[in-house]
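Sat 14:20. Reprocessing the chain from the morning session after the first attempt stalled halfway. Input below, unchanged.
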Amino acid sequence: MTTTERHRAAAGGVREAEEAVVRLREGFAGVGVTLPSLRVDPVSCAGDASAVLVDLGRCNLETALRLSRALAGKAAGHGG
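Finished this time. Tokens:
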């Protein structure tokens, strides 16, 4: 793979990660959860690596409990 191809692949991965962050933000908002640090991890975007990471970040206890309740509701089939 050429350098140009690696750059294109990396850029595509970053775009996909950015779209995933938007979908996650919208999905979490739909169940009343806001993750203030949700973002594409900038360190994983460095270089030509295609392993871009999404950083869910840190949140306060109230948010963590809301998120766990939403997930428990989905797992139990209650729709959150």
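The first strand starts at residue 39 and ends at 40.
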